[in-house]
Amino acid sequence: MDKISIILPVYNVEKYVEKCLNSIKNQDYKNFEAIIVDDGSKDKSVEIIEAFIKKDDRFKLYHKENGGLSDARNFGMNFVTGKFVIFIDSDDYIENKMLTTLYENITKEKADVSICGIYNVYINKKTSQCEDKNIYFVCDKNRFLKEYLIGKLVPGSICNKLIKVDIAKKIQFPVGKIYEDAFYQFDLINFAKKYVVTTNPMYNYFHRENSITTKSYSKKNLDYIEIYSKFYDYVKSKNIDLKKEAFFRLSYSYFIILDKMLLEDDYYKIDKYNEVLNFLKKNYFKIFKNNYFRFTRRIASIALKININLYKFLLLKDLKKNKGVN
Fold this sequence. Notes:
Mean pLDDT: 94
Largest sheet: 10 strands, mixed
Distance between the termini: 40 Å
Number of strands: 10
Number of helices: 13
Structural class: alpha/beta
Strand content: 15-25%
Radius of gyration: 20 Å
């Protein structure tokens, strides 16, 4: 069995890190190294980790000044000695057979990347991102790109993907960006040719109220539009038959940013607000016809074209209905 390197960035996760560490320790795949990167934590995370690693020499702790998630992951790559690598977030946790499943699939299929499904975990709820947990397929990068853009069979997180180290060493996470997983996977398709996918959910993605993706709007959120504009331009430039899927993901990024903006006071004064709004209004009918969108989102595109206040009313109603699960 080949060694798997696990890179685990840590920053102020004292409430969650021990559960994450235990989920790694309890893997039925034993030949791994866990490279823990303390990204300048100011809480008790390091104390918890130091006590934990005394009992298992497969876990190594490294320290660096705070530089963000991308910087910590890139730093961790300097210490990798395995044949395969996976990035795990320290506020999440994994099922006991995750490493075994990913490893068996990648070696059996001689693939570059092995992917599993994800559970979305909330305080009072845990659901699989894909309704069908029994799908399995091998594909080239175009099929991978299609499923990634749709987001049902291939979740957007990088943390559910086991990658050949010789490929991962060619890619850097973008320091200073959020939605770094999307930027990384944009580069991944330039190097990884063969992918194996199971929708069986084995990565548990915990949605914290104060996580980067659930915080209120900031200018950095525009990174989301930037990266999916790159995907859209890539599909067009390569003349790949995925324009519908790429447009779906690009439009979805505009919706996400608009929704965040509308939850702010004086949202109409936010820089780029009109640009975001006008893109969606201009493309409302194209969005309405795109069946990758949920029906409620397609209806919302019509509401947005009619009146922004009507759209905001529907948005707030939906948020209230799904409070804590958005």
